[in-house]
Write a structure and sequence with these properties.
This protein is mostly helical. The chain contains 14 helices and 2 strands; from the N terminus they run αββααααααααααααα. α2 packs across α14 and α11 packs antiparallel against α14.
């Protein structure tokens, strides 16, 4: 007699996995929001707090003065002059390099690239971008030598041309700011050239070929095809360069330290000098707060203007 084997129990089917709840996009933005809060919002709040005190820094006592630093700031001629100088620097960093860079990018893409090959255009693009990779300290020392009054390269050229009254590029209050602007234009041109040439890669080459067959010259193709198709990228270049000009600091510190006679002061250098050289921490914090608010308003205005323009094009 053989023993009967009990039938095996059939394994229960595994329960169906519960459908996963979709993760909100806000969860992906959370790390960036935390980083933004720690790196930007908290230091800004601390800066605003310090601006309400009269304080020499370190272990010196702090005295609550409320909005007194801001009231004094509104009556400070040097502070307002620094903001006036910023308008000139926006022209040297955002306006002039963007216009020149746009023309250079169009020439390299539409003329040099087609006539001499893409490699020639790439070499020229890298050459224009070369000043951008130089450390700002190296660029400042280089231009200090170029603009030096007695033995500088620029005045040596003028002397060889017979000019007897040589300008004091960095020591004359009337031209020191223009000398800094000259350096900034040289330093900045490569940025719009690289960005706008990358944008031109997206433009259909058949548009240029069709326009050329219709007899359109380079200037006509530039106005009718190049500018309209990369308008968004031009906005980005102008926005980033404008913000960079408003918080510009290192070239002024290296070349003139705000002089002569405070003629090259900019808001960031004004804050730095009050913070670290004059030990007026509260006053420097107040000027930095005003600068941050103005930069935020300008950036918001440019972004709003860009959004309206894109919406109008649709």
């Amino acid at each position: 007699m053989t023993a009967t084997t009990p039938p095996r129990a059939r394994p229960r089917p595994a329960p169906a996995p519960r459908p996963r709840r979709p993760v909100s996009y806000w969860a992906y933005l959370l790390p960036m929001g935390v980083g933004f809060g720690l790196v930007v919002l908290v230091p800004f709040a601390v800066n605003v707090w310090y601006s309400l005190f009269s304080w020499k820094g370190g272990a010196a006592p702090r005295t609550w003065v409320g909005l007194e630093n801001y009231r004094e700031l509104m009556q400070d001629d040097v502070f307002w002059r620094s903001f006036g100088n910023t308008l000139y620097l926006i022209g040297a960093v955002a306006v002039v390099p963007t216009v020149i860079g746009l023309v250079l990018a169009a020439l390299l893409f539409d003329h040099i690239g087609r006539s001499f090959g893409a490699r020639a255009a790439s070499v020229l693009r890298a050459a224009y971008y070369l000043p951008q990779i130089l450390p700002i300290a190296v660029a400042g020392v280089l231009w200090s030598w170029i603009l030096e009054t007695r033995d500088g390269a620029l005045n040596s050229v003028l002397r060889s041309l017979g000019v007897t009254t040589l300008p004091d590029w960095l020591g004359d209050p009337g031209i020191a700011l223009w000398s800094i602007m000259l350096m900034l234009v040289w330093l900045q041109i490569g940025y719009p050239v690289v960005v706008l040439m990358s944008a031109l890669q997206r433009v259909d080459p058949e548009l240029y070929e069709a326009a050329e067959l219709d007899g359109a010259g380079w200037w006509r193709r530039f106005r009718a095809i190049t500018v309209p198709h990369i308008r968004t990228d031009i906005y980005v270049v102008v926005l980033t360069a404008t913000i960079g000009a408003m918080k510009l600091f290192a070239p002024v510190l290296i070349l003139t330290r705000g002089g002569p006679e405070s003629s090259t002061y900019v808001p960031s250098f004004f804050s730095y000098r009050n913070f670290f050289e004059l030990s007026r921490v509260g006053y420097g914090a107040a000027s930095a707060t005003v600068l941050a608010v103005v930069i935020g308003l300008v950036a918001g205005g440019l972004i709003f203007w860009q959004a309206r323009s894109v919406e109008a094009d649709r």
